[in-house]
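Structure tokens please, single chain.
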Amino acid sequence: MAKINADKKLITEILERGVEKVYPVKNELEKKLLAGKVLRIYCGFDPSASSLHIGNAIALSKLSQFQRLGHKVIFLIGGFTGMIGDPTDKSAARKQLTREEVMSNATNFHQQAKAYLDFDGNNPAELRYNNEWHDKLSFKDLIELSANFTVQQMIQRDMFQKRLSEEKPIFLHEFLYPLAQAYDSVALDVDVEVGGNDQMFNMMCGRDLLKATKGKDKNVLTMKLLTDNDGKKMGKSEGNIVMLDENANDMYGKVMSWADGVLTSAFELCTNLPWDEVKSINSNIANGELSPRDAKMRLAWEITAINHGEKNANAAQDNFIKTIQNKEVPEDVEVKEVEPGEYKLIDLVSLLGLSSSRGEAKRVIEQGGVKVGPINGLTTIKDTQAEIKVVSNLIIQRGKRQFVKLLVK
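Here you go.
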């Protein structure tokens, strides 16, 4: 078993960096960490999509910091809760998923988490699925557990109050989601739970249930969220999130497209840079010594390196400079074979897989998002019905980063 590191400076940094609040009070958890006792610390991830995203990575990074101190961290996949769907901040009930859909979505979660957590060695992270225990609960068990909460507790949540005022339905299973998540703390017998500050209610339910059933006091550590300039959470539904299954080029390019106002929190939340260096970078951004472009390139490199390694991060940065900043066509552009002849541009874009439908192809072309031409002479074409004569080495570009080179059969 790994030796516990109770270094006060490191502990202070862990409880400060990216942390919104520690419940019930920070110094209580600090004392436990300084005492050198091994703590069981977890965070749960519902497979509502087929990949984790950069917001999930914030919690993974915090788990990693605790793991490096020698504590036992648990990476929990919501094999059961993922089927219900967390109602937090939702104006309508989530679509319920089947077990098959949830487990299919979770296929790559473990591999993606390996970029942040060590699942081998002397202090391996533990991989668990909460359907292990939830599938075994009886209706009697559910009634007994639910007796620890009141309807008033659940209905006072902002999104439920909003739905009530708008006369939108609130389904009973949505009330049960916090109870299901709360029981994870009991089943895992944890000391600390980590999660975004939007998960505070669910995590505190776990604290209440653990205390009621086992007389154990759990600390809750809420993380700051990565937000845009308007303070809105960056996420899947907002369309501005970086998914961890994106290739290195796309990941680097996505980060480069973030608004300048995200930089300060992103260096704090999304990188493994030393805390003192993060403070220095953010100070230099604030006083103008570091330009937003240069800061963003450093940020994009750091995030890509965590998930794809330094070699791929270097290649992604070189590709970005060449294709975006210098507006060149990448050397490793994808090649696709097509039959010779003339094609309407909308048909060609669809055929090459540069759009998911003809409707999307039409919209992208009309908005000036498609260029056609030889490698050194790409031209924007906005006419969806424009006739394109297919010849070998003709380049079709969609957006800033998608290129296809044609090869006539």
